[in-house]
Design goal:
There is one protein chain. The protein is of the alpha/beta class and 434 residues long. It has 3 domains: 42 residues, no CATH class; 320 residues, Alkaline Phosphatase, subunit A (3-Layer(aba) Sandwich); 60 residues, no CATH class. 32% of the residues lie in helices and 13% in strands. It contains 13 helices and 16 strands. Strands 8-7-9-3-10-13-6-14 form an 8-stranded mixed sheet, with helices on both faces. Strand 4 and strand 5 form a beta hairpin. The radius of gyration is 23 Å and the shape is globular. It starts with a strand and ends in a 13-residue tail after the last strand.
């Protein structure tokens, strides 16, 4: 019998096919033998970082170059060798080339939503958007499924999150910093820093007043989910503002300058450093945004002079830093935009640009059970479509949750009682774990 492996071993439907422990032929001893033989996979990742490349980066100019394609497709950049034999990426990503053993390049990811908002929602939930339902983003699901200490936020976005908690409700929403660290400036998050001379005693007094008001307003509650969420936020905000651990986690000035140097002096690199500090302190999920990838014009100048150097320095620093702190094996990392860019270069500017193109794109995955140093999937000769098997955002979502020990087939219920499967159509990409 083929065993379909999932984050917590066999998914429920496979357990039913095999016979639940002691029923239908699978005893506890049988299960333990499967586990010993490696047929039951236990999750490895305990936390996650999602790097969102908002705008949609060009796959042909980053991680899926086609040097033998015609001039109006291959572009100006040349591929360079990485530290993994046979794998090449853009010449403008030398630091990521030097640590390619730490991540997987997933090529041939494909969908059909060419609008930014719809594409971002699809990528950030693993479900094709529906007008009648708001699916939760990854961070909200992680906040619900993976317990976090009260004095540490479960879900943080630097500076903002692309997808909210959807039908899970406000209490699983991300703490948005609304700013990113800047070189040479102290960094603090509003609500976690005691500014303006406010004392902890004053905070305590205000909290007691809020509790009294809550009791009065309880008589006229009309939206239980919203009020529960606000109450959750209030309790957590108080716990965090009085927590030395939470304030310390956001204080990147505490880091050794030698360690900080590998992240560079750009805001994105410092955001990656902050993400590392947050997950190290107990935060379960962190989103970091790097925007500007909507390169309809001046694609090659914008990539080579700004976007790719930022990505190269900050992301390589994150991979190296996680490894140095012993966190890479327990931290799932995903890097993605909402789509790729057109293979054919347009003529909207002197050097040309690339337009929206969801039919073929790349993603990077690392950490937890992901086996770095490989390319999974392949695009055709012009990077116009997957050459063989296409991977959908649903598949990537199922894989991401699998790596975190969250069953992608878990069933939730909306406030109205509607049953919703977390990832409706995705299949775990097993080769990423091989």
């Amino acid at each position: 019998m083929t065993t379909h492996r999932n984050c917590d071993g066999m998914v429920r439907r496979d357990m039913l096919k095999a016979g639940v422990l002691g029923i239908g032929g699978l005893s506890l001893a049988d299960y333990l033998r499967l586990e010993a033989a490696g047929d039951v996979i236990k999750p490895k990742a305990e936390r996650a970082i999602f790097i969102e490349l908002a705008g949609g980066p060009s796959h042909l100019d980053t991680f899926d170059l086609k040097p033998d394609a015609p001039d109006n497709i291959r572009g100006k950049f040349k591929p360079i060798a990485t530290n993994v034999p046979g794998i090449q990426i853009s010449e403008h990503l030398p630091r990521l080339a030097a640590c390619a053993d730490k991540y997987v390049i997933l090529r041939g990811v494909s969908h059909t939503l060419a609008a930014h908002e719809l594409g971002r929602e699809y990528i950030n939930t693993g479900n094709r958007p529906l007008p009648s339902l708001q699916y939760p983003g990854y961070g909200s699901v992680v906040a619900r499924e993976m317990p976090t200490p009260a004095d540490i936020p479960a879900n943080v976005a630097i500076p903002r999150v692309a997808q909210g908690p959807g039908f899970l409700g406000l209490k699983y929403a991300a703490l948005e910093t609304n700013s990113a660290p800047q070189p040479g400036r102290p960094y603090s998050v509003r609500g976690l820093t005691l500014g303006g001379g406010v004392t902890l005693q004053e905070i305590e007094s205000r909290q007691n007043l809020l509790a009294k008001l809550d009791r009065r307003f309880a008589e006229v509650e009309s939206d239980r989910q919203l009020l529960d969420g606000l109450d959750q936020f209030g309790s957590q905000a108080y716990a965090m503002i009085t927590s030395k651990r939470a304030r310390a986690a956001f204080d990147i000035a505490k880091e050794d300058p030698t360690f900080v140097k590998q992240f560079g002096e750009d805001s994105f690199g410092l955001s990656c450093l902050l993400a590392l500090r947050l997950v190290e302190s107990g935060v379960r999920y962190v989103t970091v945004q790097l925007g500007g990838w909507d390169t309809h014009q001046d694609n090659f100048t914008r990539l080579s002079t700004a976007l790719l150097p930022k990505l190269d320095e900050g992301l390589s620093g994150l991979f190296a830093g996680l490894a140095q702190r012993g966190l890479l094996d327990s931290t799932a990392v995903m890097v993605s935009g909402e789509f790729g860019r057109t293979p054919k270069i347009n003529e909207r500017s002197a050097e040309g640009g690339r337009d929206h193109y969801p039919r073929c794109m790349f993603m990077l995955l690392a950490g937890g059970g992901i086996q770095g140093g490989q390319v999974v999937g392949e695009s055709d000769a012009t990077a116009s479509a997957p050459l063989h098997k296409a991977f959908s955002p649903d598949d990537v979502a199922a894989t991401f949750y699998h790596n975190l020990g969250i069953d992608p087939a878990i069933e939730y219920h909306t406030e109205t009682g509607r049953p919703i499967t977390l990832v409706r159509n995705g299949q775990v990409i097993e080769s990423l774990f091989a």
